[in-house]
Structures are given as structure tokens and as C-alpha cells.
User: Fold this.
Amino acid sequence: MDFSRFADEDFDTKDWVNAAFQMPEAQTNKDAHAASLVMKLQMFIQEVNNSLEETSIQAVQNLPRVLRDIDSVRQEAALLQDQMRLVAEDIQKVERDTSLSMHTLLKIDQVKCRMQDASHALQEADNWTTLSADVEDVFKSGDIEAIASKLVAMQQSLQLLVDVPDYEERCKHLQSLKTRFEAILSPQLVAAFSSQSMDGALMYVKIFKDIDCLPSLQKYYHKCIKNQLQEQWQSIRDADPDETVADWLNNLYDVFVSTWHIQVKWCNQVFNEPLTVVCNLLQDTLATLEPSLQYCIDSAASSRPNPLTYLQELKEITDRYAKSLEGLVEAYGADQSHHTCVHQLVQTIYAPYKKYMLQYDLYEEGLLLKQLESIRFDREEVLDCIRQISDSVPKLFSYAKEVKLNIVGTNTYCDIEN
Assistant:
């Protein structure tokens, strides 16, 4: 029989008794089974009593030894406390006796550190003089790695000479050497960025990063790709004389989308902020196209009888590109840190329409007046005039509804306040 259930916290006497009488042997003779259970329980109780008695005897026998151990631990704790107090007193005594000596040692250590700094500064000053004397020979050799190494060494030396009287002059001299170095590398940089050479770009990134001129390298990349896009814009305009500005816009935006895919992937392996670099590239290219989009749109719109309809057509093309750009930015995983460059790019995309948006009410008003002038009230009879006015009301509401739809469509994606 399992007596372990008596130790359960949720033991229930009725459940235990009912379970005991559910056994097969209890079904034949319940009285005999009950008597057997009682006998077994009495035997179990006797065993428990014996176990408790043995445990109590052992506890009573062990109690003097436990008390002796407790007293021993108390004495040792008191002894340890006394020793700790003596140690604390010794430490305080050492502090009082050696405070003056420690103060003297600290002053000596400060003097030592200052002497080491002065010695290091003198060595770097001598090093700067040596490097300055050798730099011309290194430039004449044309060895790119040697020139870069020399500039890095001069830069490190200059960092320790901040307090020298001619520090500003030395900074200007070093900057002139860096500019001279950039001029030497200029053809190679253009070739590397034009061909999208990964190995060459990574090499130049390391060099320019070491000499603290990485922004200058990005400017070379920016200028190189921007010139390529300008050439493609010129090719788009010269490809087919029969193409309209709408065709030019479609082709230009296709080029920009393709450029986005290629350059983001390439810049991701070269620069730290590829999205920012590419956004700034496209934004600057759009803003400086020759001829500008503003000029092309103005010329085309001025020759149209209904410039608003034509502008709406062009803006729908721009909206599709802006929507495509939004998807590309989201796919890249842009965060709040990229908000400024993306916003500037979007503003530049819609910049050609800004002046039309600011004068939109005048354009729409002129178009609506022309439509109203087409309605003639030249009937002689009053009833005929009233009938004609009644027939014209649906046309007027249709014109107004069309104007409303144009306003809603024109303002999509376009923030004229900024």
C-alpha cells in the first residue's frame, strides 16, 4: 500500500478511503479489507512513532555538542572582531604617518609625467622637422603609399604640438600637402569611380581615412557619378527630336532608379552611409541638370493651350517616381537618421512644380473663366434665358468638380510650404 500520499499538502481523508475501497481485493469482502487497512495503518503509525522517538533521542544526545560548537564560533567571532579592529587601527596609523610621504610621491610622479610629456613633445617636434624636410623627396618619388604614410606621420606628430606658437601655420602646411596629394591622385580616383573598381575604391578609402580626408574622397565620387548622369540626361534629350518632356522625364527617372540600385549596392561596400551618399548624389544631380527640369517644363508648358492639364500629366510621372523611390527607401530599411537626406531629395524632385503650385489658383481661375465664357446667355425671351441658365448649372458643377479633383491630384506628394 502507498502511504506517501499522507505527506501531500492537499491530502484528503475521504478521497484516500474511497480510493482504497476501489481496489479489486476490496470488492469481494469489504469488512475484511477494512480490517486489513486498519491493521496496516496501525503498523505504519507504530513505525512513525518509533522513527520520531529515535530522532528525538539523537537530537537530545547531539544538543550538548551543538551548544559547544556555537560557543566556540562565538569566541572565534569575538577574536576576529578584535583582530579587525587592530588592523583598522594599524591602517589609520600608517595613513597618518605616511600622508606627507604619499603627497610628496604624488608631486614627484606629476613632475615625472610632465617631463615625459615634454620629452615626447620635443621628440615629435624634431620628428615634424625631419618629416617636413623629407616630404618633398617623397612627393617627387610619386610613391602613393609612401606619401600617404608620410602625411599620416606628420598628422600624428602635429596632434602633440597643439601648444606650439606656429601650430596654425603647421596645420595650413599639412593641409596644403594633403590638397597636393589629392591633386596627384585625382586622375586615378576618377578612373576608379568611373569604372566602379571595388579594389581601387577600397584602397583609396583607407588612404583618405588615414589622412582624415574621407569627405574629400566622397566629393570625388559624387562629382564623377554626377557627370555620368549629366551625360545621360544630355543623351536622353538628343536621342529623338520627336520626344516630349514627358518622355524625357520617364527616361530620366528610369536612369535614376537604375542608378539607385547600382550605387547603393556599390556604396554599401565602400562608404559608411551608402543611403545618405546616394540620396545626396541624386538630389544634387537633379538640382544642377543642364538644362534644368524647371527650364524644360516651363518651355513645354508655355506652348500649351491648357498648361494645367499638361503639368498634371508631368506630375503624375513624377508621382510614380516618388512612389517608386519610397519603396526603395523602405526596402533598404532607412531609419530616422536618414530622414533629412530623403526629405531633401523629395523636395528637389518636386521643385520644378513649386512655382506652379504657388500660382495654382490663378491658373485654375483663368481656365474656369474660359469655360464659363463658352456659356452664352443671348436669348431674347426671359423664359429661354432661364431655361438656358438651368441647363448650364450641371455644367458649372461639373467644372467645379473637375477643379476639385485637379487640386487633390496635384497636391499628392507635393509639400509647397517647404
Notes: The two ends are 88 Å apart (CA to CA). Residues 412-418 have pLDDT under 50 and may be disordered. Residues 17 and 37 are 10 Å apart (CA to CA).
